[in-house]
Amino acid sequence: MIFRQLFDRDSSTYTYLLADITSRQAMLIDPVLGQLDAYLALLAQLELQLVYAIDTHVHADHVTALGKLRESTGCKTLMGKQSEVACASGWFADNDVLPLGALQLQVLYTPGHTDDSYCFYLPEHEMLFTGDTLLIRGSGRTDFQNGDARAQYQSLQRLLALPPQTRVYPAHDYKGWTSSSLEEERRHNPRLQVPDVEAYVELMANLKLPNPHMMDVAVPANRACGRAD
C-alpha cells in the first residue's frame, strides 16, 4: 500500500492519500481546495490513478477539493448519504465497503460532530481515519450542523470497540501531532475519561468555542462540492 499524510497549514487539515501498489488506484480523504495542485503533482509523480475523492463530512473550516479533483482526474466524488450533497458522484452509507484495488475500506457512520460524519477503517493495515469524530486528545465539537453530543458518545464507543492497536488518523490537529492509537486515546484523551453519556453531554455543552472563521463560506461551498458561486 502507498500512504501519505498531507497537511493544509491554513486550516490544520490532514488529507490522506491511499493507493493500491499493484493496480495504482488511489483515493484522497478530506482534500482541501487550496492544495489541489499539490495533489495532482503527487499523483503524477507516483503514477497513480485517482479513483475516489471523499469527505468524512461537510466541513466548516475549509473548502473541499472534491469538485475540482473530479474535473481534473475523472474520479468519483463520494459523500455520506446524510449530507444530501446533490453534486456528488455518489454516496456511501454505514457498513459499505469502498474497494481500491486489493484494499477494502470499511465505512462507519459516526454521527455527532455533524449528522453526516463518517469514519473509514482499513482492517488489514489497522488504520482508522476518524474525520472530526475522534481527534488526538480531543473530539469534534457538537454545537452546529445538527451536531449531537449524545450521538457522538455512542460513535466514540463504536470506534473504541475496534482493536486497541488500531492507528488513529484524524482530519485535524492543531498541535502538530500526526497520529495516535485507540489504546492511547482511551488512556489519555480527556474526552474519553467521562464516566457516562450524560457526563459527556455536559462536557460538550460547556466548551464555549467560537465558530470556525470560514464557516459561512465553507459550508455552502462544500454542499456544492467546493464551488463558492
Task: List the topology elements.
Blueprint: E1 2-8, E2 13-19, E3 25-29, H1 36-45, E4 49-54, H2 66-73, E5 76-80, E6 90-92, E7 97-100, E8 103-109, E9 118-122, E10 127-131, E11 134-135, E12 138-139, H3 149-160, E13 167-170, E14 180-181, H4 182-188, H5 197-205, H6 215-222
Parallel strand pairs: 3-4, 4-5, 5-6, 10-13
Antiparallel strand pairs: 1-2, 2-3, 7-8, 8-9, 9-10, 11-12, 13-14
Helix pairs in contact: 3-5
Which terms would index this structure?
single chain; 229 residues; Metallo-beta-lactamase, Chain A; 6-stranded mixed β-sheet; 6 helices; 24% helix
Descriptive account of the structure:
The chain starts with a strand and ends in a 7-residue tail after the last helix. The chain has helices at 36-45, 66-73, 149-160, 182-188, 197-205, 215-222, and strands at 2-8, 13-19, 25-29, 49-54, 76-80, 90-92, 97-100, 103-109, 118-122, 127-131, 134-135, 138-139, 167-170, 180-181. The longest helix has 12 residues, at 149-160. The model has no long low-confidence stretch (mean pLDDT 96). It has one domain: Ribonuclease Z/Hydroxyacylglutathione hydrolase-like (Metallo-beta-lactamase, Chain A), CATH 3.60.15.10. The strands form three sheets. The chain has a six-stranded mixed beta sheet. It has 229 residues and is α/β, with parallel strands linked by helices. The protein contains six helices and 14 strands.
In short:
The protein is α/β, with parallel strands linked by helices and 229 residues long. The chain has helices at residues 36-45, 66-73, 149-160, 182-188, 197-205, 215-222, and strands at residues 2-8, 13-19, 25-29, 49-54, 76-80, 90-92, 97-100, 103-109, 118-122, 127-131, 134-135, 138-139, 167-170, 180-181.
